[in-house]
């Protein structure tokens, strides 16, 4: 036995007897642990039943979780299909009261400036071979359909005021369309179409910057690298900037084409080249098959004119050189005669465009045209004077200057939203076209002064008659 001076505390493995501040430590012997009693047969049966119950609960919980995930995925697919269908409905317009002699090509010419047309559906009479006077146009974007509806309703085509509206099945998706509009209203975003194909994003940005600070610009890409399809979107930092741009630039002539500018009616979406399926924002699609399913469900809602020459070749592609190609050409030309003039042209092509003079500089940049065999006649007739004999009269008059291959009569709205008539004449050669411009420009006709100009032949071949 030993005696120690201890502090208040605890010593493991020993018994402690405290007498004041003096304690005695006594070793304690540990007792061996007694074995657990064996389970009876009844207890073993209960244990097995408990294990089986736990397994059943675990399996049922996993199945419920898997079923909930499947239901969520099916709900997402249904939502995606409904949203896709609503966007397709927003991209479609109805055109009524179409004169029976106006074919699909004329309708396309009139509505193409608002955006890329995916399809035109006209109903035809089986006995007469004429259409029934109405058509449906499906655009690639809802904004193109909206601006086309706003600017073309009531316009005179072929002596009739056409009626432009929405298909009668649009109310079926009214709630979803309203939600899409509410989403779009959160962005200061505008839509622009009829952009000259030679303009770049930087060119367009420089023209629209004076109205407010631009957060981003996106032009719809073409299949050709570095090219766009003539329409796109601009995001402003402020709502006022977007509103000012729409008020000032809608129907503004830039590079010989009238811009169409309006408020975006859909939230931002990725823009893809033709042939690539877009993915809707905010829709949790996790696989390509899910997107295809949604598009298949949405697609369930959808189902040769006298002015068309069946023997004509397909529309020619744009042949204007890019700025980089022009730069290389000018570098070579500087070593030949006229180097000073070529250097001046080079400086004009590569000038930095910004500030209040941006629009003027871009129009100067695009003012140099290639040879063309097409003449456009303006201020020659009013919409009321358009009749079945007008085309023959124009052909007879223009034949004095050369061989006439084709005459197209086109109606559109000007800056004051008045309907104007433009007559396009395709000659056999550019020499004949120049002679016609010399003979007809400034000439009096029916109390009006004719304005005759050379028109870009590649645009004419692509049915772009908007400038």
Distance between the termini: 117 Å
Residue runs with pLDDT of under 50 for 5 or more positions: 1-21, 278-331, 333-356
The helix count comes to 13
Strand content: 15-25%
Record the strand order, biggest sheet.
Answer: 5-6-4-9
Please state the oligomeric state of the protein chains shown: single chain
Structural class: alpha+beta
Biggest sheet, in brief?
4 strands, antiparallel
Q: How many β-strand runs?
A: 21
* Mass-distribution shape: elongated
Let me know the average pLDDT. 77
Helical percentage: 25-40%
> Whole-number radius of gyration?
38 Å
Overview of this structure, please?
By secondary structure, this protein is α+β, with helices and mostly antiparallel strands. It contains 13 helices and 21 strands. The protein has helices spanning 41-90, 104-111, 142-152, 174-184, 201-208, 239-249, 288-298, 323-333, 339-349, 358-365, 390-398, 430-440, 457-461; strands at 3-5, 14-19, 22-27, 92-96, 117-124, 131-139, 156-157, 160-161, 163-165, 189-193, 214-221, 228-236, 253-254, 257-258, 260-263, 374-378, 404-413, 419-427, 444-445, 448-449, 451-455. The strands form seven sheets. The protein has a four-stranded antiparallel sheet. Strands 11-12-10-15 form a four-stranded antiparallel sheet, sandwiched between helices. Strands 17-18-16-21 form a four-stranded antiparallel sheet. Helix 1 packs across helix 4 and helix 1 (41-90) packs across helix 7. The chain is elongated. The N and C termini lie far apart (117 Å). The model is unreliable at 1-21, 278-331 and 333-356 (pLDDT under 50).
